[in-house]
Amino acid sequence: MPPKGFRNLENFISHLESIGDLKRIKTEVSPELEITEIASRTVREGGPALLFENVQGSDFPLVINLFGTEQRVELALGRKPASVGEELVEIFRKVNPPSIGGIFSVLPKATGLLSMRTKKVRRGDVQQVETEPDLSKLPVMKCWPRDGGKFVTFGLVLTRDPATGSRNLGIYRLQVYDNRTTGMHWHAHKGGAAHYHEAKKLGRDLEAAVILGGDPRMIFSAVAPLPDGMDELAFASYLRGSPMPMVKGKSISLHVPAEAEFILEGSVPRDVLRQEGPFGDHFGHYSMEADFPVFNLSEITHRKNPVYPSIVVGKPPQEDLYLGIAAGEMFSPLIKIIQPEVKDMWAYPEAGFHNLLAVSVDERYPKGGIKAMLALWGTGQLLLTKCMICVSSDVNPRDFSAVLHEIGENFDPREDFLMIQWAPLDTLDFTSNKFNVGSKMGINAVRKNTPERKTYAREVPDPREKHPEITGFRLLAGGFCAVRIDESRTDPKEMIRRLFETPGLEGVRIIALVSPDIDLTDDMELIWGIFTRFDPYLDVLFEHTELRGSAVVYDGRMGIDATVKQWYPPVIEMSEDIKDKVETRWSEYWS
Ligand SMILES: Cc1cc2nc3c(=O)[nH]c(=O)nc-3n(C[C@H](O)[C@H](O)[C@H](O)COP(=O)(O)O)c2cc1C
Q: Which of 58, 76, 407, 544 could potentially form a cystine with 555 if both were Cys, beta carbons 3.0 to 4.6 Å apart?
């Protein structure tokens, strides 16, 4: 019987080692780029967690790829993420709460779970050693060649709302500026930023603690898209089945998890912004420089022999893919309670999650799919979803081909297309050329209550014969045709119009143009290469568009220009010399 969860990182690491799912690497490695390349390769190969015992410039070991497979996430949680979701659904069906926030506020009462809280303790291992802040002692990584410097990537940032006292825990990267100052990269839509907003209104600085390591269920809870105001530490306690022990910080008034590896204590001044970035991020391109608050450290505490946890994000697949999948499995069942027509949903990890969400809907009345989309855009972090596709309740939203097939048969742009031109956007999204603002689109491909289905092409003539500028194409299900061009030589919008006029392509339903770097045969890269690279308002066009009254009516085939635009930040790539170095040393690491 595998153990049901681990109180701290030490226990988790020893267990992984005992089952051969953690590799100790004794060879000296550089925290600049080399660890990234080793970790990314290991994730792609489905390999073990890695404990680097000898990181250049630091006395502390570094652990990475703790969550890089579905099995390890399940071990970390002590159970299957979906089973947590099912349990929560069971509980809440009984209490009929009005919203996701309402669900969590009744959780302790509904379950009678005394664990749904933290407990204060007088001593914690995380305070065995107290030191002046000196970030140069930690094995902080520089992840990608064009990163603006070194970043703490797996810090759980704990803050309190200065108005209500409620806690928030979120993972936000911290750019190291000097030994006692970092950036604080919380996006405007996140819990930490909301606390900072309140503190500013009150004219106060905001205390913060950055937690490194601890109970893996707490680490997961920091990533989980819990509603604002819901205490992630109480949720972690629920997952553990016992209250998380918290000890009072040494230089701050916050209580911090007693079993963490390190705590960086400090505060975020209300009136200082500093340029942060660039940084190679989840969407596979760099997120570029922007102004963010800073974090001034007042003290660092740690265990006697702490391990520094790290993670790499970048072009999928990376380790965070498995955390995101688990979060989806756990929380999507809850959505069904407040939106009963939603049968299932799936945010595509290939597209960085927020860029593509497929939802299966039990449409009880006409346009129920449209209603579901509007409701989901108003629910928690689903707000950040860019492209939403609704299909009938018997379609598996995880099956991209099945979703495309439904679009091919049912989508009528005249009445099934939603375009929201100006909306809040994920901070990482670069496609609109505006910060935090851009457009969204919804496709309602739920089957209509009529026997007719549209037909779509199952094969098409090679478009290269008519258009030699095209360097490749692939026809997917539903008449969805991906076409590769070199956007520096051919105007993509013009190419879409020419393809609409090309004989033989009448049965195509959607034409998506992609850039030369996309391998059309690689499903993961294709979904990434399309859905992270267009802004619906700027880049989607239909064969026919007309203005009727105040409404724009779309008709015919749809074109998506998902090529790289001149304002897009660079794609994240590891430099060739590091790839060569890692290739040469590969067997040394594993010896
Ligand atoms: C490895 C990793 C790094 C992340 N970095 C950031 C970040 O720098 N800024 C941010 O706002 N969200 C980041 N996130 C996402 C948030 O942690 C996540 O949205 C979380 O649910 C936020 O919680 P909150 O709404 O309680 O703040 C990151 C997630 C992971 C897994």
A: 544
> How many Å is the Cα radius of gyration of the chain?
25
Nearest CA to ligand 1 atom 22: 170
Is residue 498 included in any domain, yes or no? Answer: yes
Residue 560 in contact with residue 543, Cβ under 8 Å? Answer: no
Q: 551 lies in which domain range?
A: 463-562
CATH of the domain at 298: 2.30.110.10
Share of the chain above pLDDT 70, in %: 96
pLDDT value of residue 556: 97
pLDDT > 60? residue 234: yes
Three-class DSSP category at 556: strand
Same domain flag for 128 and 239: yes
Separation between Cα atoms, residue 351 and residue 345, nearest integer Å: 15
Q: In this structure, which residue's CA is closest to atom 28 in ligand 1?
A: 171
Mutate to test the pocket of ligand 1, among 141, 190, 379 (most ligand atoms within 8 A of CB): 190
Tens-place pLDDT, residues 353-394: 999 999 999 999 999 999 999 999 999 999 999 999 999 999
Q: 418 φ, ψ to 5°?
A: -115, 135
| Ligand 1 centre distance from Cα of residue 510 (Å) | 33
CATH number for the domain harbouring residue 553: 3.40.1670.10
> Separation of 169 CA from ligand 1 center, angstroms?
9
Best residue for ligand 1 mutational test, from 66, 67, 143, 172 (most atoms within 8 Å of Cβ): 172
- 91 and 213 housed in the same domain: yes
Q: Name all residues whose Cβ lies below 6 A of ligand 1.
A: 153, 168, 170-173, 185-187, 190-192, 223-225, 311, 313, 320, 323, 381
| Strands of 308-309's sheet in order across | 22-25, 49-52, 62-64, 308-309
What is the distance in A from the centroid of ligand 1 to the CA of 458? Answer: 41
Cα(170) to centroid(ligand 1), Å: 5
Query: Alpha-carbon distance 578 to 584, whole Å?
Result: 10
Task: Answer yes or no: are the C-beta atoms of 584 and 29 closer than 8 Å.
Answer: no
Catalytic positions, please?
A: 281
